[in-house]
Structures are given as C-alpha cells and as structure tokens.
C-alpha cells in the first residue's frame, strides 16, 4: 500500500445490497476507511466521523467509504443503529477480507482489516495511505487537508497562462 501505485479495483456490496465498484468512481476521489469490525466503539466513532464530514468530502469531489469484513446484513443493521444515512459501508465478507488483503491492510492473525485510510485519486492511484494506532480513529482533518491541497494545486495548474 504505497502512494503512487495503481489502486486495486474491486466490487463489493454495500449495506443496501448494491454493488460498489471502485473503477465506477473514476474521475472522483475515494477515501477508503478500513476498520476491523462493526459494533465496536472505535469503529463506530470512525464511521460517524465519515458521516459528519460527508458534505466536506463531497464539496472536495470525494466520497468516503467504510470497509470491513462484516456481512451485508450486519452492515445494514449497524448503519441503522448508528444513524448513518450518507456513508456507504462495504462488506469485504467473501472472499474473506479480499480487498483488505489487496490493499495490504489485512490482519491474518485476527481475520480482520487493520484500521487504515487509503485515498484513491480520480485516476485510480493511491495518493495517501496510513495505518492508525491501535484504538485510535483516523485523522480525517489530515485527509481533508490533503484533498484541499490537491484541489488548490489543480486549480493553479488550470489557471497558469500558457506561453
């Protein structure tokens, strides 16, 4: 999981049973928020933080996604229980943790994803990858700052007069 690498494409079902395919979001930045398991206090804080910041992500041309090895019915019940309305939760259920493995964030001893954040740019390359400390919630302000910085540099590139 290194920056600059192509992001592995994947298709997973979300909490509504709909298929989410990463390559379907080409042209948009995607924040992949890996977490170990639904129904835990830290994972709940992590997903609520995505929900609280969804408008900010949207304004920056990004979508934030939660991913864990839980099943679709589990994700559906958890999303309802913690009042997630805008945040997409993906079930990396089968093959068990396959996407987390592809991104190098699968903890094979525990059988769950590590807590990690990966940002994929609009060209499907990894531009940010960071694991969180055990028990810690990812710093979304750091991710938002990166997205803003990229947005500003893109605008500057567009506005540079050609000679």
TrEMBL record:
It comes from the Archaea. InterPro entries: AhpC/TSA (IPR000866), Thioredoxin-like_sf (IPR036249), Thioredoxin_domain (IPR013766), Tpx_Peroxidase_subfamily (IPR050455). Residues 1-152 form the Thioredoxin domain. The keyword Cell division does not apply. PROSITE patterns: THIOREDOXIN_2 (PS51352). CDD domains: PRX_AhpE_like. Keywords: Redox-active center. This is Peroxiredoxin. The lineage of its organism: Archaea, Methanobacteriati, Methanobacteriota, Stenosarchaea group, Methanomicrobia.
